[in-house]
């Protein structure tokens, strides 16, 4: 990790954590020094990663366990990784269910392709 160029005035935020996790904070400080960066840069990088992973749909994230209950057509969030999609597809046992999913995915793909033509 490289040191982030700081622009403008820094804003101070604080957070709390259990005393039992002091070792994590201490280790982050060691890593930051070793890599020539700041503790806050590491925190901001992880916050940015979290935001990128969880805000794409602008909807609350659904736990994957929701899809393991066998509820029909409760598909994973579009931005889930391949492993979660494979788990979902493993739940499809009947051809009519597959056909319905296929219809939905084709509809989404058609919308997606129409949007692409705008660019």
Please characterize this protein's 3D structure.
With 119 residues, this protein is an all-alpha fold. It has two domains: 19-54; 64-116, no CATH class. It has four helices and no strands. The model has no long low-confidence stretch (mean pLDDT 80). The radius of gyration is 21 Å and the shape is elongated. The longest helix has 22 residues, at 95-116. The two termini are 35 Å apart. The relative contact order is 0.08.
Secondary structure layout:
Elements (H helix, E strand, L loop, with lengths): L21 H14 L3 H16 L27 H9 L4 H22 L3
Which descriptors would you attach to this protein?
single chain, 119 residues, 2 domains, 4 helices, 51% helix
Number of strands: 0
Average pLDDT score:
80
Report low-confidence residues grouped into runs of 5 or more: none
Major beta-sheet overview: none
Strand residue percentage: under 5%
Based on helices, strands and strand pairing, what is the structural class? mainly alpha
Task: Please report the distance between the alpha carbons of the first and last residues.
Answer: 35 Å
Number of domains: 2
Write down the secondary-structure element order: HHHH
- Supply the number of helical segments: 4
Helix content: 40-55%
Overall 3D shape: elongated
Oligomer: single chain
Gyration radius (Cα, Å) is 21 Å
